[in-house]
Write a structure and sequence with these properties.
Length: 213
């Protein structure tokens, strides 16, 4: 892997999935529901902040969803960075994928109700929606225009951007950034509290990527 991008105002984009939530801990489908971080999740957020601090990046702006697990993760990271005065944009377009009728259900119970194959299809297909919910494609259709109109202008101006969001909203961005196929992106696992750094070229393509965890 290439060396870590250094803080020189060269379009650094940091993506961080929120720390473990209480519902992650309980193996529940979460989606747009709003549980807080677990004790482990708080520790993961602090660790993510320390990793980013060690990378010596001065961020210019931060983005997050309207869900508290992402917002609290961001607040903890900014405290670790000593950058609590950073402008923060909160938007529902960065929320996790909406799991519809699955939200709040234990994943094992959902398998018993609908069958292993059907639940796997809902979780791991690109364009199949769970009942009343969103597919990853649906999520990408709200996340990517937001990235283009709100994040990319900051990056294009040479600023460094920090995003604390969710597994599927971040997958949508990663799919675009890394040019991944539908099959590749649904297989991509994102650990909680594990920062990914990208340095982008003037045309928005990725010059360097580094996983900090």
């Amino acid at each position: 892997m290439a060396t870590a991008p250094q803080d020189s105002g060269k379009r650094i984009l940091a993506l961080v999935r929120h720390g473990e939530s209480e519902w992650n801990r309980l193996n529940l489908f979460t989606g747009w529901k709003n549980p807080d971080l677990s004790e482990k999740g708080v520790a993961e957020a602090h660790a993510a902040g320390r990793l980013l601090a060690a990378a010596n990046i001065a961020f210019d702006v931060a983005f997050t969803s309207v869900l508290q697990r992402a917002q609290r993760t961001l607040a903890i990271i900014l405290a670790e960075l000593g950058q609590t005065a950073l402008p923060i944009h909160e938007d529902a377009r960065l929320n996790e994928r909406d799991y519809g009728e699955l939200s709040g259900l234990n994943k094992d119970d959902a398998r018993k109700r609908w069958g292993e194959e059907q639940v796997h299809l809902w979780r791991r297909s690109y364009d199949v929606r769970p009942p009343g919910g969103e597919s990853l494609m649906d999520t990408a259709e709200r996340v990517l225009p937001y990235y283009q109109t709100h994040m990319w202008p900051e990056l294009a101006a040479g600023r460094n951007v920090l995003v604390a969001a969710h597994g599927n909203s971040l997958r949508a961005m990663i799919m675009r950034l890394e040019g991944l196929s539908r099959t590749e992106i649904i297989a991509r696992e994102l650990a909680t509290g594990a920062p990914i750094l990208y340095r982008l070229r003037p045309d928005g393509t990725v010059a360097e990527r580094r996983d900090l965890a």
